[in-house]
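Q: Here's a chain of 110 amino acids. Please give me its 3D structure as tokens.
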Amino acid sequence: MTDIDIWIVIAALWLATFIARSGFWLAGNRIQLPQRVQEALRYAPACALAAIILPDFLMYPSGADQWDFSWHNPKLVAGIAATLFFQLRKNMLHTIIFGMVVFTCLRLLS
């Protein structure tokens, strides 16, 4: 692939991203989403976050492409601990700090 091909791909991806992200902004109030779609979109950020984070929790620590559900996986244990902590405290900043402390301790101990 030549340099010009790479720049063409970058420009095409930029254009596709711009169109996809600015479509509703450019349309303004002319497009009204149904109430049911608006309610469903409220869950999109949580679903996207779970789709990104959950596989990272479950991957084998050495980077191999296999799942690790054991207690030897520090990311999984720290994620479970942080989830339980959040259920008790309901404070996101404290949960992030607690989860990182648990993860760091588990990494240092293993």
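Q: Can you summarize the key feature?
A: Helices lie at 3-27, 35-41, 44-58, 74-89, 92-109.
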